[in-house]
């Protein structure tokens, strides 16, 4: 959820181009794609819609992805339970085994948003099912860009570390 804004932010930080302005961003129904080049590697992003009806599509990407970024709307306390279930389904799928998972606590610019520590607490029990993989919860604001570079840096290190398990695709 709210991952389109994040993808535009990632592109503007790493590609040096101005992304879509927030008012041009509409809810994701299909797939938004984006790519960035980082020290001789190309990272391809597939931004999937977060709405409940679209979640069954996520698993079609599991076999080919090298990492998963789960973007959480930290202001939406009412739907946190729903997010827990969606997250649990991802991490318990055989096809995501061992894959690094980064959870982003987005919208940290909003004063009353859930903080990383609170989110960790909420996802505490589920995280026992993460198995042997790299995972992390990081605070970001896709809107303002805070924490986005650090998030991608974390991701890149873990992608490299997980190469023996899921090798990159050479093109
Ligand atoms: N305050 C604030 N608003 C944000 C942030 N990121 C996204 N939003 C807003 O949240 C709303 C949804 O964001 P989108 O990026 O359009 O979400 P989306 O990826 O299309 O949503 P799904 O497809 O349902 O996952 C928009 O109004 C964004 O401007 C943020 O970091 N801070
Ligand atoms: Mg989206």
UniProtKB/TrEMBL annotation:
GO terms for cellular component: Golgi apparatus. Keywords: GTP-binding, Magnesium, Metal-binding, Nucleotide-binding. GTP binds at residues 50, 106-109. SUPFAM superfamilies: P-loop containing nucleoside triphosphate hydrolases (SSF52540). GO terms for biological process: Golgi to plasma membrane protein transport; intracellular protein transport; protein localization to Golgi apparatus. GO terms for molecular function: GTP binding; GTPase activity; metal ion binding. It comes from the Eukaryota. Pfam families: Arf. InterPro entries: P-loop_NTPase, Small_GTP-bd, Small_GTPase_ARF, Small_GTPase_ARF/SAR. Mg(2+) binds at residue 28. The keyword Heme does not apply. The keyword Nucleotide-binding applies. PROSITE patterns: ARF, RAB. Belongs to the small GTPase superfamily. Arf family. This is 12172_t:CDS:1. It comes from Ambispora gerdemannii.
